[in-house]
Amino acid sequence: MSADLPSFVLDSFALLSHFQDEKSSGRIVSLLEQAQQGECRLLMSLINLGEVCYLIERRRGFQAVQLAIAVTESLPIEILPVDREIVFAAAHLKAQYPISYADAFAAAAAQAHSATIITGDPEFEVLKNVIELEWLNPLVRPGASPTDPSQIQ
What we know:
Elements: E1 7-10, H1 12-19, H2 25-36, E2 41-45, H3 46-60, H4 62-74, E3 78-80, H5 84-96, H6 101-112, E4 116-119, E5 132-135
């Protein structure tokens, strides 16, 4: 794939919304179709895939996570390896911003690939001046719980 294609990093929120067929999953489906047609690149850090795995296993069991891994591997998502450079980039972001370590890997991947993060996780709001963000649920105010109905605008 060409480096001049638009690139998007999926965080765990984005992939989980797709698996759970949430309202915001339509955007993920659209991006998957575009990636399949070679119109964009979809990227995900191996760390964020691991986050998806433990969340699914915790909620639905080991068989469900095995299925999720198989499905993910069949999708046009490039799973990015974790090397020394990306670990230090994520650590640098984590040291500067109040984000989870896993989210720091998504942000570091976005920086390394000049990509936009696709997320609904309000924790990324603190990075709005550092990386490009696309919110899956624009009705939820960043910094608010996406499941709290009182936070809907």
